[in-house]
Description:
Blueprint: E1 2-5, H1 6-11, H2 13-21, E2 26-30, E3 33-38, H3 69-74, H4 80-85
Parallel strand pairs: 1-2
Antiparallel strand pairs: 2-3
Amino acid sequence: xxxxxxxxxxxxxxxxxxxxxxxxxxxxxxxxxxxxxxxxxxxxxxxxxxxxxxxxxxxxxxxxxxxxxxxxxxxxxxxxxxxxxxxxxxxx
Length: 92
């Protein structure tokens, strides 16, 4: 593991990235204090599989129901009634 100052890192970034991609860990420092670590990006885990939680997650029938006006106001969202009054689709 090598420590390199930030100015040198900017100057030699391409070389440092190649070294990191090859498995080396490089510490970037400012005024002698480590501020960043340059490492190779790890491989992603296994690919996502649609439907992996099927049957394990339940969504209530009122999941997308409008919020009560007081809660919508507290969250800064327009209530169902407010959206209708503004001529907006209240179901969006």
